[in-house]
């Protein structure tokens, strides 16, 4: 059953608009019942536009009240208006002012796009196509204009009135109303427009830029939450300083405002000078926020701030170029966090995220290039491929060009394209021009979907002291792309000698290898290194120098050797993870491990834990046993999640039991009475302690330790970790801990999200019925994306054996929930549905029951364009 028209938009059809918008004046009259929006758009035809070309503006669910050009109302025959478009049939062939009025009902806007209300506050979300839900406009990113915004609202309900840019006037407007006038001098696309009107508290600060300008900073929030905004403010100031230091980028307005709202479809939004944030990415205090929350706040505050240059000053020509701003900005926020915290630990974190979310997307039915060439619903393309793979591409560029070359290219990018809406091609061109490098083959990364699979083989010839190394690349077909081109893949590497030190060579032939970088630019490359005295162990893709999968020919003992000796910390971690994955995946597929393999692995783990040179956060990552989804992905097809879960559990027991006492002693020794600080050092110690607790609970049944930690906790990080572990393993005390947590933090919505997530991750068969009951409770806020994502998103993404249960109950629970949520908020619904992308990897029975659930969703419900597109792509 369908109602939405299935229109596909193609990159190849791009054409500039026949009309330019020279300037924008908006007048919002906000009242409890409704909001009236008057737009005065100064418009002119382009030089090449033929006279009488109709002007077609976008709308979405709008109802036109009045329309005039240059002050004269239009006669009925001069325009056509419906909910989705406004056409002026024969506009003047010169500059003119189009004046329109519409009425909005923000209260009824549950899609949270356009102008809506969140806990009483009026706020907006316009990216990508929300502005057309506010007024008729050329709502596309290549239409840039300066905005002047007047907001009038009741003083009592909305004492705070904010928009983009600088405040130029404010005052009383009579009848209990007041007004504010904002002006943003920087021409911007409509997706960066924002407005906030509400009764909000705030904290303020200031930042002096490198050229000595003082910028007023403020974070607005619900009254009473001000004290929880300080970490966000601190992160903002550090971000501003970092962008000056690292990229020479200075902030450009006199004010920078952030507003935290409770109902938000994403993490946050980079509106010019007025960032709007999901409150979970602003509020933090030790009793209710975890270290992971602090880490995310720092990262997202930085991300949105960095968009001011990469996104706002230089924006995208069209939405196919989304990766231009997102990939680059994610790269920048990753670099910021690496500089602020531990670089290797951040790299591990980012790669884990890439592997657990982007790789499955890239290898399944939803695979698409970082720069897609068609879409039905652009909201479905705010994906991990655009964001995280996009960041990896920028990272590879930096690797290939070196730090200085990369910076030269970035400087040229800012110089050449400031104020423009541009493309991926223009981005690559600046690096070509700045460094004289040919990037034509490299560009394929943006255009081709799929994760390259790298095969490695090697041979050592003692007689000639020659070591040869063959690297082969292959990308499997993805939807719409049956044939793949070879990519230019930077391989950072080293040859590790028998004593663990780096080996050097006297010569190399057969390919490009310079210092520690091999350029794999052919389907297969064989390098011959001469002057090699002993057989080396290759350490490849150091620092994860490219977003690829490697099938390594290394034996377990070689991998464990690297885990103990590689000079590259990322590869040390990765080697041990590979060993763990191989053992569990093997056992799940009927190839049990040998006792000696496990002994060696256990020893490697103990050695790592006892190594005084490694920091705690790194150790915590080393002892994190790969999750069931990760093992499933390694197996790749015909996966039975139950055997994976069983094998993983068996390995945990076999690994932990013999060293339980040592692990417990270490666990106890990490207890501290120091006052909580979210800094990387303390957070690292806590994460190691949690990692040890995980081993002890999962591998030695020590739920008593979880309970003790839960009760003794003096911060949310320790308390949540203990409860979540008990819930996941559904230990005897899990229900009691969940119950205590629920009542202890009753009334705190962000902590309720943590409870929902922990509930959704439970491994027992009762989980679905409990979730059903939670969702059906009359007071469950089904309009709030955070609540829905915490319950349903966590379930589909992190509880693989219950979601893909053999009886199909997990699939049906989700499709039924999606059908219901779709009526309220299609963006949240379609995102939850993407969890079904795992279907092709599952064994036949589960695959079929998953498909049946999707078919039922498709035939029995009227679905949004968002959900329909995802559904059709998964079923294709
Ligand atoms: N540009 C934002 C992401 C974002 C996209 C869409 C939104 O609403 C539907 C909100 C935010 C970012 O990259 O942070
Ligand atoms: Zn972004």
TrEMBL record:
The keyword Nucleotide-binding does not apply. One of its GO terms (molecular function) is aminopeptidase activity. Residues 450-551 form the Peptidase M1 alanyl aminopeptidase Ig-like fold domain. It catalyses: Release of an N-terminal amino acid, Xaa-|-Yaa- from a peptide, amide or arylamide. Xaa is preferably Ala, but may be most amino acids including Pro (slow action). When a terminal hydrophobic residue is followed by a prolyl residue, the two may be released as an intact Xaa-Pro dipeptide. Its cofactor is Zn(2+). Residues 25-192 form the Aminopeptidase N-like N-terminal domain. The gene is pepN. This is Aminopeptidase N. Belongs to the peptidase M1 family. Residues 557-876 form the Peptidase M1 alanyl aminopeptidase C-terminal domain. It comes from Devosia rhizoryzae.
């Amino acid at each position: 059953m369908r109602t939405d028209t299935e229109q596909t938009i193609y990159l190849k059809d791009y054409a500039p608009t026949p009309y330019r918008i020279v300037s924008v004046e908006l007048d919002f009259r906000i009242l409890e019942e409704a909001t009236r929006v008057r737009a005065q758009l100064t418009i002119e035809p382009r030089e090449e536009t033929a006279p009488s070309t109709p002007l077609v503006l976008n709308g979405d669910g709008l109802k036109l009240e009045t329309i005039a050009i240059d002050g004269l109302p239009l006669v009925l025959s001069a325009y056509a208006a419906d909910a989705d478009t406004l056409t002026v049939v024969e506009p003047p062939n010169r500059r003119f002012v189009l004046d329109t009025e519409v009425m909005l009902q923000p209260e009824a806007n549950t899609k949270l796009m356009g102008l809506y209300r969140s806990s009483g506050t009026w706020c907006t979300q316009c990216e990508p196509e929300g502005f057309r839900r506010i007024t008729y406009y050329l709502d596309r990113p290549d239409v840039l204009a300066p905005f002047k915004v007047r907001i009038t609202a009741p003083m009592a309900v909305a004492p705070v009135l904010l928009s983009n840019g600088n405040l130029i006037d404010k005052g009383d407007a009579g009848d209990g109303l007041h007004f504010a006038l904002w002006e943003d001098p920087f021409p911007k696309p409509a997706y960066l427009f924002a407005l906030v009107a509400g009764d909000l508290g705030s904290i303020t600060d200031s930042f002096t830029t490198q050229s000595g300008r003082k910028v007023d900073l403020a974070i607005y929030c619900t009254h009473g939450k001000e004290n929880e905004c300080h970490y966000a403010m601190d992160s903002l100031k550090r971000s501003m300083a970092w962008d000056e230091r690292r990229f020479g980028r200075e902030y450009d307005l006199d004010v920078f405002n952030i507003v935290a709202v409770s109902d938000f479809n994403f993490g946050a939004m980079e509106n010019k000078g007025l960032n709007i944030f999901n409150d979970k990415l602003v509020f933090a205090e030790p009793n209710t926020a975890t270290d992971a929350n602090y880490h995310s706040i720092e990262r997202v505050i930085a991300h949105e701030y960095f968009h001011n240059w990469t996104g706002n000053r230089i924006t995208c020509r069209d939405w196919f170029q989304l990766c231009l701003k997102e990939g680059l900005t994610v790269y920048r926020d990753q670099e910021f966090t690496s500089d602020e915290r531990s670089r290797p630990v951040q790299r591990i974190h980012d790669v884990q995220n890439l592997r657990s979310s982007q790789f499955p997307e890239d290898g399944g039915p939803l695979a698409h290039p970082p720069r897609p060439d068609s879409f039905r619903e652009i909201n479905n393309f705010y994906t991990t491929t655009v964001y995280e793979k996009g960041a990896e591409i920028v990272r590879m560029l930096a690797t290939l060009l070196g730090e200085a070359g990369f910076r030269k290219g970035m400087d040229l990018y800012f110089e050449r394209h400031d104020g423009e809406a541009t493309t991926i091609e223009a981005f690559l061109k600046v690096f070509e021009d700045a460094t004289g490098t040919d990037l034509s083959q490299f560009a394929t990364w943006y255009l081709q979907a799929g994760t390259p699979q790298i095969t490695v083989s090697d041979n050592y010839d003692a007689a000639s002291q020659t070591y040869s190394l063959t690297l082969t690349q292959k990308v499997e077909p993805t939807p719409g792309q049956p044939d793949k081109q070879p990519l230019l893949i930077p391989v950072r590497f080293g040859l590790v000698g028998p004593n663990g030190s780096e080996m050097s060579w006297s010569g190399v032939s057969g390919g490009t290898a310079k210092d520690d970088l091999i350029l794999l630019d052919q389907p297969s490359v064989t390098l011959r290194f001469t002057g090699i005295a002993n057989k080396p162990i290759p350490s490849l893709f150091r620092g994860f120098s490219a977003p690829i999968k490697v099938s390594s020919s290394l034996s377990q003992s070689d991998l464990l050797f690297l885990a103990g000796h590689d000079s590259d910390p990322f590869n040390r971690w990765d080697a041990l993870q590979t060993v763990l994955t191989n053992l569990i995946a093997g056992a799940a597929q009927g190839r049990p491990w040998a006792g000696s393999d496990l002994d060696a692995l256990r020893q490697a783990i103990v050695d790592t834990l006892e190594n005084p040179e490694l920091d705690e956060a790194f150790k915590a990552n080393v002892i994190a046993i790969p999750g069931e989804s990760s093992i499933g992905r390694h197996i790749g097809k015909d996966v039975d999640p139950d055997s994976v879960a069983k094998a993983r559990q068996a390995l945990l027991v076999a690994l932990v039991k013999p060293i339980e006492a040592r692990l417990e002693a270490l666990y106890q020794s990490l207890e501290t009475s120091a006052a909580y600080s979210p800094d990387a050092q303390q957070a690292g110690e806590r994460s190691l302690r949690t990692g040890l607790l995980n081993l002890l609970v999962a591998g030695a049944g020590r739920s008593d330790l979880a309970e003790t930690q839960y009760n003794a906790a003096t911060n949310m990080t320790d308390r949540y970790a203990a409860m979540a572990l008990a819930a996941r393993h559904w230990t005897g005390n899990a229900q009691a801990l969940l119950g205590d947590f629920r009542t202890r933090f009753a009334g705190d919505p962000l902590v309720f999200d943590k409870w929902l997530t922990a509930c959704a991750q439970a491994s027992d068969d009762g989980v679905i019925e409990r979730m059903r009951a939670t969702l059906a409770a009359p007071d469950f806020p089904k309009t709030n994306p955070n609540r829905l994502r915490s319950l349903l998103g966590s379930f589909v993404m992190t509880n693989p054996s219950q979601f893909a249960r053999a009886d199909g109950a997990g699939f049906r629970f989700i499709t039924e929930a999606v059908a219901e949520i779709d009526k309220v908020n299609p963006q949240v619904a379609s995102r939850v549905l993407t969890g079904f992308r795992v279907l092709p990897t599952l064994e036949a029975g589960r695959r079929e029951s998953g498909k049946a659930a999707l078919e039922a969703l498709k035939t029995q419900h009227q679905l949004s364009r968002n959900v329909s597109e995802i559904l059709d792509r998964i079923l294709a």
